[in-house]
Amino acid sequence: MTTQPSKDLETFDNPQPGRDYTIRIDIPEFTCLCPKTGQPDFATLQIEYVPAALCVELKALKLYMWTFRERGAFHEAVTNEILNDIVAVTQPNFMRIRAEFNVRGGIYTTVVVEHRNPAWQAPELVNLP
Questions:
Q1: What whole-number distance in Å separates Cα of residue 84 and Cα of residue 115?
Q2: What SS3 class is residue 78?
Q3: What angle do CA 53, 120, 61 make, to 5 degrees?
């Protein structure tokens, strides 16, 4: 296989740095291993963020996600690690990651983690009739 997992998250310049807008990324095939049993855990990750100066590059994000396939990780730990890593390279105004793990032992787990730049003010929500 020529494409290999990589922890190197790449970025590119935000094409509209003066505008607040939301980027939503769905990752329906995330996998890691249960640290207790070694069995695979499957999840759908939803990443939402308001970029500041940088955006995450999608192919690099895909290869980053592949690095978890053979790693044991608790749901809470892996979700927070992903948030920390992406925030470290992009420094967004806001980021939320929602990890919805498939059933294991009759239990579904959803972990939601957020980052907010304290200097950023979210725009007022507009509700149209």
A1: 9
A2: helix
A3: 40
DSSP-derived letter for residue 53 is S
Mark whether 8 is an active-site residue. no
Closest listed residue to residue 81, CA positions, set 63, 106, 99, 62? 99
**Residue 41 known to be catalytic:** yes
* Residue recorded with tokens 């790693």: 71
Predicted structure pTM score: 0.95
Domain ranges of the chain: 11-116
In the DSSP assignment, the letter for residue 119 is T
Catalytic residue among 20, 32, 34, 55: 34
- In this predicted structure, the answer to whether residue 22 has a pLDDT above a threshold of 90 is yes
Percent of the chain at pLDDT exceeding 70? 99
| Topology annotation, domain 11-116 | GTP Cyclohydrolase I, domain 2 (3.30.1130)
Phi and psi, residue 60, nearest 5°: -65, -40
SS3 122: coil
Other CB atoms within a 10 A radius of the CB of residue 108 amount to 9
DSSP-assigned letter for residue 70: T
